[in-house]
Amino acid sequence: MFIIANLIKALAFVLDSVLSIYFWIVIISALLSWVRPDPYNPIVRFIYSITEPVFYRVRKWIPFVYISGFDLSPIVVLLAIEFLKIFLVQTLYQLAIYMA
User: Fold this and answer.
1) 74-99 pLDDT, tens per residue?
2) Number of domains, the chain
3) Cα(58)–Cα(65) distance, rounded to whole angstroms?
4) Residue span of the structural domain in which 32 resides
5) Are 9 and 60 in contact (CB under 8 A)?
6) Which is it for the CA torsion 43, 49, 61, 83, positive or negative?
């Protein structure tokens, strides 16, 4: 049973790491939208390619997220990431502890 507990613990750790990395990518994307960088830069294209689909879905599901010229979809995404980190990751860690 400890093998499954270790697997769940490892899954929780990887999920926490991925969510933390995506959190910072969303922040960088929001900052880049303020300065208008070179759109042909490969790093900028990579950041936009992994954040814009999520931002588009948030804008589509919550139409009031774009208020008087301010796009609040990055804030919604950041809150969702924090919710997943608090709820899902902690639940997986506690499940692994319970199974051990």
Assistant:
1) 999 999 999 999 999 999 999 999 98
2) 1
3) 8
4) 2-99
5) no
6) negative
